[in-house]
């Protein structure tokens, strides 16, 4: 089996696990995420607008003290851009089904809440396969310190995410059950 086939199989299983967890509700996930964000008060934050059965970070984003942005996909193979978001800003349809702010005020985040399909305790995540967050984190980290926080249901944890050298690790993972500091060993 190729790595691409392994990742495709893992994505299918991860979608199913996330769908079941989504049906049960978020529980204390957003409160736990807000707590994890407290040390970053004032820092520019990027969250995301949930699609499908993604866990919803918006309550924690709205509570953050500092500028908040959401990702904008500008094209295949490109890193993400981030536009300022507020709970009451006007949104419009963006690529891949995610809403984006109608007004484009760019923000460079120092902390990112990262969506995912699956994660492991080493800090690796399985995304949708476009590599957007991997490219984005590589560029942001080259420019200075950045903290990437995976946000997921505990049911999305797997023993080991299939990885390749371009996969960017998370610094922290927050779930509805716990906050995990990855062990890259």
From TrEMBL:
GO molecular function, one term: 5-formyltetrahydrofolate cyclo-ligase activity
Swiss-Prot/TrEMBL cofactor(s): Mg(2+)
SUPFAM superfamilies: NagB/RpiA/CoA transferase-like
Keywords in alphabetical order: ATP-binding, Ligase, Magnesium, Metal-binding, Nucleotide-binding
A biological process from GO: folic acid-containing compound biosynthetic process
Reaction(s) catalysed by this chain's protein: (6S)-5-formyl-5,6,7,8-tetrahydrofolate + ATP = (6R)-5,10-methenyltetrahydrofolate + ADP + phosphate
Top EC class, one word: ligase
EC identifiers of the protein: 6.3.3.2
InterPro entries referenced in this protein's UniProt entry, alphabetically: FTHF_cligase, FTHF_cligase-like_sf, NagB/RpiA_transferase-like
Family per record: Belongs to the 5-formyltetrahydrofolate cyclo-ligase family.
Protein name: 5-formyltetrahydrofolate cyclo-ligase
